């Protein structure tokens, strides 16, 4: 077995591994990147990019159906799912090609291997190449960016039926007649609205007492109402005990709920109950890299594992599992290994995120639940979206903006359930980063009629009592 040594070995072509490979190569290091599946990892191939591309098709279908609200003849769209999937594939392939050409440009000098890496020593891996051969690699530094895959719950009968994960559903060339979705988290919500808008009947079956349990009750409730108004059935507090499928292809989920046993039937079943880390086949015990009780790699604030010279980046160390966090892990490692400036930490960085339903749920900083849990004093203001001029003009009036302000009159966090909620949330993130006091936003001149004008309104809700002379 040939043994080659490098300065840097990157396992996994994820959102951290790819930019790290090019940055290290630009710095003159000999880099090898090993990917067992598709270059670009989950975000590009079966995560963010394909879902948001297909959500755009679903949104267009919804606009056609609801065109009557805007004085136009409504259209019942004939959804050509094969064409929807083809459009998505086209976008994904172009992005994957971008990653490939970045990594393989001759000047980079990066060796890209297609195969599965397994540790055989602290900084030594064996790669089972796609072509059948095996190669041994050693490196001064090893970066693990192997991501996660769908968690499959241990439910009687589930392994015996052809359920779908998101990866498979995203390639389904037909519209499911009735899609059952196990799990009401990010994936469950985005896919429920997507397939409902394509024309499926959709039922979400969630174990928790509400959707998106980490969010405030008002946001969960409002999002539940949005989905139900579009015809998504939502079953909460459901403990699914058995799954079966009839010869006619009908899935039956037998669930224990507060109102007794329920049988939920559908033609397709999506399992979206969270993720598990891709660490089980990595041979990390051979390297001495320690895992937590869920199999995620233990790292410190600099993303160093328990073995010197071995780092873990992205979802594989437990997250938060977002593309922008994985990318920021790259920045942390880059700053600490290559830059002379202050050391960077992966702790205490802002955590913006957005659920891409319509309206979107954008979140930054603390919500009320978290402020209470952490004992942080706050004042809160909530602005119904329907009061914003831009919302009325565009007919996108559902939702609310909620801001929490601390004792120092600075923003602690925001929850934005609104059209373009992700973009609006990012304005709040900038306000937090700039440490602006809320009074500065009350009277800031903002272009009319923009969504941004809502900033004036939401912060005016926080009027302080007049000071007495
Ligand atoms: C359906 C879906 C939608 C999502 N939508 C969003 C969104 O809108 N916004 C957002 O921020 N996040 C979203 N995410 C999460 C996001 O995709 C991930 O957080 C992000 O891709 C970070 O991944 P990563 O860098 O940790 O690794 P990944 O991108 O998962 O890459 C890991 C790579 O390692 C490879 N690998 C694993 N083991 C080995 C091995 N032994 N040898 C060689 N290669 C190996 C894998 O094949 C994979 O290509 C979504 C996820 C899913 C599933
Ligand atoms: N817009 C985005 O940023 C976006 C979109 C999709 C995915 N993601 C990322 O991918 C990750 C995975 O998404 P996800 O939705 O699979 O996970 P999740 O953790 O967000 O939600 C999983 C849900 O499944 C429920 N559940 C677990 N076991 C169950 C069971 N046996 N029966 C019924 N319900 C059960 C949980 O209570 C939870 O509500 C997310 O945590 C997020 O980091 C992000």
Automatic annotation (TrEMBL):
Entry superkingdom: Bacteria
Keyword annotations from UniProtKB, A to Z: FAD, Flavoprotein, NAD, Nucleotide-binding, Oxidoreductase, Pyruvate
GO molecular function: flavin adenine dinucleotide binding; NAD(P)H dehydrogenase (quinone) activity
Cofactor: binding details: Binds 1 FAD per subunit.
Annotated active site: 448
Residues holding NAD(+): 183-190, 206, 274
Domain FAD/NAD(P)-binding span(s) in chain numbering: 6-327
Pfam families: Pyr_redox_2, Pyr_redox_dim
Keyword Oxidoreductase: yes
Family: Belongs to the class-I pyridine nucleotide-disulfide oxidoreductase family.
Species this chain originates from: Hymenobacter psychrotolerans DSM 18569
InterPro entries named among the record's database cross-references: FAD/NAD-bd_sf (IPR036188), FAD/NAD-binding_dom (IPR023753), FAD/NAD-linked_Rdtase_dimer_sf (IPR016156), Pyr_nuc-diS_OxRdtase (IPR001100), Pyr_nucl-diS_OxRdtase_dimer (IPR004099)
Domain (Pyridine nucleotide-disulphide oxidoreductase dimerisation): residue spans on this chain: 352-456
Binding, FAD: 52, 315
Record protein name field: Pyruvate/2-oxoglutarate dehydrogenase complex, dihydrolipoamide dehydrogenase (E3) component
Co-factor(s): FAD
Disulfide bonds listed in the record: 43-48
């Amino acid at each position: 077995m040939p043994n080659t040594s490098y300065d840097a070995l990157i396992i996994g072509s994820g959102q951290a591994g790819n930019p790290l490979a090019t940055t290290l190569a630009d710095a003159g290091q000999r880099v090898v990147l090993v990917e067992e599946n598709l270059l670009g990892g989950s975000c590009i191939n079966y995560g963010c990019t394909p879902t948001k591309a297909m959500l755009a098709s679903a949104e267009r279908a919804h606009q056609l159906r609801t065109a009557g609200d805007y004085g136009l003849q409504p259209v019942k769209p004939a959804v050509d799912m094969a064409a929807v999937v083809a459009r998505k594939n086209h976008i994904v392939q172009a992005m994957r090609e971008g990653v490939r050409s970045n990594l393989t440009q001759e000047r980079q000098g990066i060796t890209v291997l297609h195969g599965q890496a397994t540790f055989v020593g602290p900084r030594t891996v064996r790669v089972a190449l796609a072509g059948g051969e095996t190669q041994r690699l050693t490196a001064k530094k090893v970066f693990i960016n192997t991501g996660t895959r769908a968690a499959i719950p241990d439910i009687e009968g589930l392994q015996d039926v052809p359920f779908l994960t998101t990866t498979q559903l995203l390639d389904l060339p037909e519209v499911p007649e009735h899609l059952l979705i196990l799990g009401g988290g990010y994936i469950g919500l985005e896919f429920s609205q997507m397939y409902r808008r394509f024309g499926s009947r959709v039922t979400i079956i969630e174990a928790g007492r509400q959707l998106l349990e980490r969010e405030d009750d008002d946001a969960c409730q409002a999002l539940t109402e949005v989905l139900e108004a579009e015809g998504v059935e939502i079953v909460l507090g459901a403990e699914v005990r058995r799954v079966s499928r009839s010869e006619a292809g009908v899935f039956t989920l037998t669930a224990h709920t507060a109102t007794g046993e329920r049988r939920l039937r559908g033609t397709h079943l999506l399992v979206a109950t969270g993720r598990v880390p891709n660490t089980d086949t990595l041979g990390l015990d051979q390297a001495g890299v320690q895992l937590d009780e869920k199999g995620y790699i233990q790292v410190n604030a600099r993303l160093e594992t328990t073995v010197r010279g071995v780092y873990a980046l992205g979802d594989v160390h437990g997250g938060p599992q977002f593309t922008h966090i994985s990318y920021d892990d790259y920045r942390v490692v880059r700053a600490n290994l290559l830059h002379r400036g202050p050391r960077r930490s992966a702790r205490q960085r802002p955590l913006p995120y957005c659920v891409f339903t319509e309206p979107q749920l954008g979140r930054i900083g603390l919500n009320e639940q978290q402020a209470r849990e952490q004992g942080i004093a706050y004042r809160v203001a909530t602005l119904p979206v329907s009061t914003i001029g831009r919302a009325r003009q565009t007919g996108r009036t559902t939702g609310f903006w909620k801001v929490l302000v601390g004792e120092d009159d600075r923003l602690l966090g925001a929850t934005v359930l609104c059209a373009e909620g992700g973009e609006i949330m990012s304005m709040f993130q900038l306000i937090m980063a700039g440490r602006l006091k809320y009074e500065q936003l009350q009277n800031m001149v903002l272009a009319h009629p923009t969504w941004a004008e809502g900033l004036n309104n939401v912060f005016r809700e926080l009027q302080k009592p007049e000071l007495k002379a």
